[in-house]
Automatic annotation (TrEMBL):
<feature type="domain" description="PAS">
    <location>
        <begin position="5"/>
        <end position="57"/>
    </location>
</feature>
<dbReference type="InterPro" id="IPR001932">
    <property type="entry name" value="PPM-type_phosphatase-like_dom"/>
</dbReference>
<dbReference type="GO" id="GO:0016791">
    <property type="term" value="F:phosphatase activity"/>
</dbReference>
<feature type="coiled-coil region">
    <location>
        <begin position="123"/>
        <end position="154"/>
    </location>
</feature>
<keyword id="KW-0378">Hydrolase</keyword>
<dbReference type="InterPro" id="IPR000014">
    <property type="entry name" value="PAS"/>
</dbReference>
<dbReference type="InterPro" id="IPR035965">
    <property type="entry name" value="PAS-like_dom_sf"/>
</dbReference>
<dbReference type="InterPro" id="IPR036457">
    <property type="entry name" value="PPM-type-like_dom_sf"/>
</dbReference>
<keyword id="KW-0175">Coiled coil</keyword>
<dbReference type="Pfam" id="PF13426">
    <property type="entry name" value="PAS_9"/>
</dbReference>
<dbReference type="InterPro" id="IPR052016">
    <property type="entry name" value="Bact_Sigma-Reg"/>
</dbReference>
<dbReference type="Pfam" id="PF07228">
    <property type="entry name" value="SpoIIE"/>
</dbReference>
<protein>
    <submittedName>
        <fullName>Sigma-B regulation protein RsbU (Phosphoserine phosphatase)</fullName>
    </submittedName>
</protein>
Amino acid sequence: MNDAVEHDLDELYDHAPCGNLSTLLDGTIAKVNSTLLGWLGYSRDELVGRRRFSDLLTVGGKIYHETHFAPLLQMQGEVNGIALDLKAADGTRLPVLVTSTVKTGSDGQPLLIRTTVFDARARRAYEQELLRARQVAERERERLRLLVAGLQRSLLPASLPTPPGMQAAAHYHMASPDEVGGDFYDLFPLDGGRWGFFLGDVRGKGIDAAAVTAAARYTLRAAAVYDATPTAVLANLNAVLFQDYGSEGHRHCTVTFGVLTPTPSGYAVTIAGGGHPAPLLARADGTVDYQPTLGGTLIGILATPRLVARSFALAAGDTLILYSDGLTEARTDPAGGRYGSEALRSFVANVAPTTADAVVAELTGLVGRLAGDLDDDVAMMALGVTAPGS
């Protein structure tokens, strides 16, 4: 009976579903089962006493065996699940997972190395399929990013014109490269030396938001040609959005629209707000304050919105800063704290007096530092009257 059991064990070893081999401490193959021989296409006589385990490895596998596998086996007495490629008799590669254990004698001295080899061809094929799928997904995502970036650029002016005696600068930061945002801005000439400007934010993201953004931008410019009074311009925009988009998921926007009128000392500014964050005014003397249009309602929500306007002077060295709420609503702590309007005012106060170019550069740096905590796109535009000698 013992002979039968021993025969069964030998049969199990030789025809196991995995490869088995034993090597001397120098790697010389002392025993190998039929399973591994069949995988590699060798006869027993070609391997036993003639080849070392490392001879079965590819060039890269030999390097890894010498620098990692063998030293780790010597130190720990075993290594588990190492991915290698074996070289078959016909030169083809067989991806495998290798586990080796050092067998010691009763005195604790190492005698030989027992190695189990698992066929990893199915696993390798699966990994390669996953890699190909990932590469396809990455290419598609990059294509989407390019499309989104192109569409986003089409919704913004390529560059801002420069009103006489002024400096103008803007920046747009996309919170996600995969979605078109709804922030928009523009600066454009009107009759009589006046200039119109606006900055707004459409609710939501994606193609629907982009459609509203395009409609808002072109409606504001067209409306200002006929009547540039800021409240009238916003009323016209509200009529368009309420009629065309009001019933489609309540598409609406916030916006600040203003008119610059030249004066001997700079420009007179009149702005109207439709639910948009109040712009900041950085004076030449270093003071910084908000210019709120309190009570202005969101654009596109009501058939007859409440619109509020205010006027102020923009003198030499003064800079007006408009922005979207993606900046002030940036998360600043895990508990849900937001950056906030006071922090923004303090930030601008620390760099005031300033110019349009300088403050946009500073705010762009701030947005970069907050980028990981931004849930929404950020648009900003600064308009400054050039100081004497600038």
